[in-house]
Amino acid sequence: MDLDEAKPRQISSVIRALDVLSDPWSFLVLREAFFGVRRFDGLQRNLEIARNILSSRLTRLVAEGLLERQLYMARPPRFEYRLTDQGRDFFPPIVGLVTWGDRWRPRKSGPPLDLTHKDCGKTLAPRVVCGACKHPLSPFDVEFENGPGAGTETDFHAPTTRRRDSEQNWLRGRPCSVASTLKVIGDRWSLRILRECFVGVKRFKDFQSSLAIARNILSDRLDLLCKEKILVRRRYQDRPPRFEYVLTPAGYDLYASLVLFMAWGDKWRSPPEGVPLKLRHKLCGQEATPVLVCGNCGGPVRTDNVAYHMHYKFDGQKPAAKSKGAAKSKGAARSKAAAGARKRKPTAPALAKAAAHR
Predict the structure, then answer these.
(1) Closest by CA position to 128, among listed 119, 136, 120
(2) Is residue 321 part of a domain?
(3) 156, 129, 198: which is closest to 4 by C-alpha?
(4) What is the value of pTM for the model shown?
(5) Is residue 218 included in any domain, yes or no?
(6) Total structural domains in the chain?
(7) Which DSSP letter does residue 320 get?
(8) DSSP 281
(9) What is the pLDDT along the chain (358 residues), one digit of tens a residue?
């Protein structure tokens, strides 16, 4: 077991949900499943992933209940991996991450995908609302209170992710706004820090106390989140100088995704006692269950009522790009070799052999 895993942590539906995606390879396999890629060879081709790594991630996602292994050929036996209800329920928070990536990490060529809500036929405008009153949820009109499942846990397994080792793995394969988002916040410490920000934690010592995190790791992640303009460092004391870390507009915009991950974790990963944290919506006074809807028609957003259009071509084959100069040099070399072959005279043994065959 990794040393970080032996430390107690607060029970959190958000973190339990993100434990599934905080490993880049697990996320990428799940992403391909949403695009309808179900078979081992297709996953390996699209992700350029070693067979042993892919096999271990598929085994883990099956064990987690997000994928199920189904036989599609008897002789020889061949299997494919299909999304379960748990896996399909990950769709709303992933749409939230798509929206954030399109808005805050835009590509020069535009969004990789257009999403259409089939129920109304319009471009999907995702919105997170309170399940009780259907009004939009915002971090400014929600109060947090402990639920019956609040506490700490040590008996858990979360994949160890090192930020510097995994940054580029997020970007494997097809263009993806979710991957661009998770490249910034996808390691499990950054996500834990953001969760603490949304419950009001701002100061270094308070982060360290609530997360049981080493000072150097906390300092590194806070610097990263400030560099990515998710947090901003603000002085609150002059002598001695002390700073606090507050969410920027881009940071606040991650709220929708985090509460949708919380809803997934409440449904599929809550302790037996109940949910660890409750949201109270100030506008209606009811306990809030976050729900993703289409902003145009108010209808629910699910995998079966959203269509997508890709603004890129991707078949899993990515030929290496060649510069014009390199291609021209290679073509000139072939032409020169051909000309030399035409000018070269046959040798005496070659002439004798040709005469014997006549």
Answers:
(1) 136
(2) no
(3) 156
(4) 0.81
(5) yes
(6) 1
(7) P
(8) E
(9) 344 445 677 888 988 888 887 677 888 899 999 999 999 999 999 988 899 999 999 999 999 999 999 999 999 999 999 999 999 999 999 999 999 999 999 999 899 999 999 999 999 999 999 999 999 999 999 999 999 999 888 756 555 555 545 566 777 778 889 888 888 887 778 888 999 999 899 999 999 988 888 999 999 999 999 999 999 999 999 989 999 999 999 999 999 999 999 999 999 999 999 999 999 999 999 999 999 999 999 999 999 999 999 988 876 544 334 434 444 444 554 555 555 545 455 555 555 555 555 4
In a domain, 331, yes or no: no
Q: Give 150's contacts (C-beta < 8 A, 6+ positions apart).
A: 10, 11, 276, 277
Q: How far apart are CA 222 and CA 33, in angstroms?
A: 33
Does some domain include residue 121? yes
Give residue 41's domain range: 3-310
Decide if 279 contacts 144 (C-beta within 8 A): yes
